[in-house]
Specification:
Shape: globular
Distance between the termini: 11 Å
Structural class: mainly beta
Number of helices: 3
Helix content: under 10%
Radius of gyration: 30 Å
Oligomer: single chain
Largest sheet: 5 strands, antiparallel
Number of strands: 64
CATH architecture of one domain: 6 Propeller
CATH topology of one domain: Neuraminidase
CATH class of one domain: Mainly Beta
Length: 840
């Protein structure tokens, strides 16, 4: 509860008694803008009411980036009205206050039609189907959604080359993208995608070139048509007009003849219900291939088949990959009018391998993937093996061989206009690539998949901004080279065994840090802290915080360093270093790693912030931790808890502690620290009633002091200028500008060194402004500088990395100008103070 209730009653009484002769609400504050410095003569102005006894302490940024145009008529003279409310939208006591402000030259941004001083310019991202920068304001990601770290699940293609790329999970967006492989790689290949609602994604899909059918393991395990048309009845699923199979679907195929399409669905173990829309495959076999009418989904036939694992329909035959005793085989059955005609006939016996997927090309050649061996094998129609695709047995760490697979699974084939057969290969590990090959074994094209772990963070090398690191699948780490001139992301290296140690699992919210020129990758995940060092051609675990579950009582925590240098956590390396946590620091959304490799830890539900420093690194680059250091206790929280908060210092805030894990801190003891934190009640998982950004600076006595605190929450659900929906990530200032990432709307709110609002990058979600309309509820993001030319970039990505260059802000450029001619004091009376909005 706020402490201003008595004052509010007085304010309400005066407001009710007001007459037409009463002084108007608010007081004007005058200033003059420069006549030069803005080519368009348009400026954006931020004015703040501050404590006259402490001008650093901002009470209200009542004018946040308002656009004003200098003309011969106004001579640059303007006034703005302060309504007597603070940044919490609550009234302040009547009296005299000081004023400060800034101005920034502004231009109308062609993308949203609004005036800005800093704007993002799209550079590129990891996907061949993203728009080119020139079209970025009109075209967005052609398909997108919440991938929850899932790789691509399947690819299917019609004989003439219309393909569907199906992700294991891509919900709350557009999925099942249809791609025309007959065109050159690029955004021109994209044909359409479909709303994902109720069908998050899965492992199997098929297409006849016009229609798509897919199997979703999300929302009730059902086969559906992404276009929303009927394919049976599936009342148990979130989409009720699909087909609810008895068994887990492992593969699908489509065959078109005489204007009608037949859909084949391979079903293995019986599905067992574990929740309302949650099913898992059980041990009881179903072992059938069901045959359906493509229109409506009617079951036309059911064919028994032992553990079916792959399907392909080509040349008037249905092929199936299935179990035979303890091994595997490919069999085929003729099709007549789209229906099986006769028994299964054996085609290929597969000995000594565990297959992954099946395809058949237009010449009758058969392809089977072998994931564990990183190979795809080609067989003649008579079953003779002709060749194997895949150069190396496994990728060499620190390099990337484009002809070496990373766990190939699903396959598909089509025939181009020249009559040449082409093979598509889905890779589950690493960057989850889809590659295209000729029938004689040549690599033809690659289709970079969405890098779906980007939502857990990706990073660039602070010494070389062209090198970007992204977590891949299966415990692999990928490095891309960003060509900022051509907008290309080129995969150039991969490393195994990153995030795979059972005692320090995962690789989330990572940051690359260089200490003494040596690179480290550090991540502060939900329950631990891990540091990797580059050791020759490997990234190896070097140090961290280990959590050991206890059968009785709370988990135990230890500091660990890799004493023997093998990159694996062993008990004798951590048992001697028990760690007492200084509060609830192992939060759901993790913590921040500073540029000096220290862990910066906010004590959730507490009032203090802690730092775990790295005292030194040995000659191998293995860190040694120091002791916990309390950086500060938030003085506003402390005052509120002690009952000493005032109307100008915390009395109108909503929290007595860091109550939310939507908070983060960055900085160093030498530069200071900047922290963003949500507070008060939550309107939803992604929006709270209070958003505050605080700056702590060295106090000259070996400690830190709170210099300023700003922030306005978007109480109406739409972020106006200077407001934040749901901030979480923050980075230390670059050239005097502090960026706060608004995760709920995917924006970047910029403040100057004094806490004054500068601008907000990216329009609100749902604005339909091309690639700049970024999805909200993403949990990563960063700003970084390129030391070569001083450019500053924003790196985001809910489903794949995207990069934007900041125009108007660099290491040598800032839009901020001082307001020299500004009214320095203002007096406001009780009758001039506005009533707060009801929601406040």
């Amino acid at each position: 509860m706020r402490i201003m209730n008595g004052f509010l009653l007085s304010l309400c009484a005066i407001a009710c008694a007001a007459t037409a002769e009463t002084a108007p609400i608010g007081v004007p504050i005058t200033y003059r803008l420069p006549a030069d410095g803005s080519p368009s003569k348009i400026w954006r102005v931020t004015l703040a009411i501050v404590d006259p006894r402490n001008p650093d302490w901002i009470i209200s940024q009542f004018a946040a980036g308002v656009p004003r145009t200098v003309t011969a008529g106004n001579g640059g003279a303007f006034s703005e009205v302060w309504n007597g409310l603070d940044d919490n939208f609550m009234p302040v006591p009547p009296g005299t206050y000081a004023v400060k402000g800034i101005c920034m030259p502004a231009e109308k941004w062609a993308v949203d039609g609004a005036f800005h001083s800093v704007v993002p310019r799209f550079v590129g991202g990891v996907s061949d189907w993203l728009p080119i920068p020139a079209d970025a304001g009109a075209q967005g990601e052609p398909f997108h959604g919440d991938p929850v770290n899932s790789p691509i699940g399947d690819v299917a293609v019609s004989p003439e080359g219309v393909a569907v790329f199906y992700y294991s999970y891509l919900e709350n967006g557009l999925s099942n993208p249809v791609i025309d492989l007959r065109k050159p790689p690029g955004p021109g290949q994209f044909l359409r995608a479909f709303p994902s609602g109720g069908a998050g994604g899965g492992t199997s899909t098929c297409t006849d070139g016009d229609t798509v059918w897919s199997y979703s393991v999300d929302g009730g395990c059902h086969v559906y048509r992404p276009d929303g048309k009927d394919f049976g009845a599936s009342p148990r699923a979130m989409r009720a007009n699909g087909y609810a199979p008895d068994g887990s679907v492992t593969a699908m195929a489509a065959w078109r003849a005489a204007g009608h399409t037949t859909v084949f669905i391979a079903q293995r173990g019986r599905l067992e219900r574990k929740g309302e829309h949650w099913y898992v495959e059980g041990a009881e076999p179903v072992d059938v291939v069901t045959v359906h009418a493509g229109e409506g989904g009617k079951i036309l036939a059911t064919i028994p088949l032992a553990r079916p694992h792959g399907l392909a329909a080509r040349g008037g035959r249905l092929y199936a990959l299935h179990a035979v005793g303890a091994g595997w085989a490919v069999s085929a059955v003729a099709l007549k009018d789209g229906l099986p005609d006769g028994p299964w006939q054996p085609v290929v016996a597969l000995a000594g391998m565990e297959p992954g997927g099946l395809a058949v090309d237009g010449s009758g050649r058969i392809y089977v993937s072998e994931p564990a061996a990183n190979r795809v094998h080609q067989y003649a129609a008579n079953g003779k093996r002709l060749r194997s695709y895949g150069h190396l047995d496994v990728q060499k760490p620190g390099t990337y061989d484009r002809e070496t697979f990373m766990r190939p699974t699903k396959l598909a084939s089509w025939t181009d206009a020249a009559g040449k057969d082409r093979l598509l290969v889905v890779e589950q590990d690493g960057p989850s690539r889809v590659s295209e090959w000729s029938a004689d074994g040549a690599l033809l094209r690659e289709y970079p998949s969405l890098q779906t772990k980007a939502n857990d963070g990706w990073m660039v090398d602070p010494a070389d901004a062209s090198q970007a690191y992204v977590a891949g699948h299966g415990g692999w780490l990928s490095r891309y080279r960003i060509d900022y001139a051509t907008s290309r992301f080129v995969l150039e290296a991969v490393w195994p065994e990153v995030g795979t140690d059972p005692l320090l699992p995962g690789f989330d919210h990572a940051r690359m840090v260089r200490v003494g020129g040596r690179p480290f990758l550090a991540c502060a995940m939900q329950s631990q802290y891990a540091i990797y060092r580059l050791d020759g051609d490997r990234w190896r675990l070097a140090a961290g915080m280990v959590q050991i579950a206890s059968p009785k009582g709370p988990a135990q925590h230890f500091l660990w360093r890799d004493a023997n240098g093998d990159g694996h956590v062993q008990e004798d390396e951590y048992r001697g270093s028990p760690l007492q946590l200084p509060g609830h620091i192992l939060r759901w959304h993790g913590q921040q790693v500073a540029e000096d490799l220290a862990l910066l830890a906010i004590n959730q539900d507490g009032r203090d912030v802690w730092r775990l420093p790295v005292a030194r690194c040995d000659e191998r680059g293995i860190p040694e931790f120091g002791a916990w250091q309390r950086l500060f206790t938030d003085p506003v929280f402390a005052a509120r808890a002690a009952g000493t908060a005032t109307a100008l210092f915390g009395g109108n805030e909503l929290s007595d502690a860091y109550t939310s894990d939507w908070s983060q801190i960055d900085g160093t003891p030498e530069r200071g620290f900047w922290i963003t934190a949500r507070g008060g009640p939550n309107f939803s998982a992604n929006q709270g009633a209070q958003e505050k950004v605080s700056a702590y600076v060295p106090d000259g006595k070996g400690g830190l002091r709170l210099r300023w605190r700003v922030g306005r929450a978007a109480l109406t659900g739409v972020a106006e200028r200077g407001e934040t929906m749901g901030g979480m990530h923050i980075r230390a200032p670059l050239n005097g500008i502090l960026p706060v990432l608004d995760q709920s709307r995917c924006g970047v709110v910029l403040y100057d060194a004094d806490g004054l609002y500068i601008d907000t990058l990216f329009p609100p979600g749902g604005s339909r402004l091309g690639i700049y309309d970024l999805p909200g509820e993403f949990f990563a993001g960063m700003t970084y500088a390129d030391p070569r030319d001083g450019a500053i970039y924003v790196g985001v990505g809910k489903d794949t990395p995207l990069v934007f260059r900041c125009v108007g802000w660099s290491l040598s450029q800032t839009p901020v100008r001082a307001l020299a001619a500004l009214q320095s004091r203002v007096e406001i009376g009780l009758a001039q103070i506005s009533r707060p909005p009801e929601i406040a």
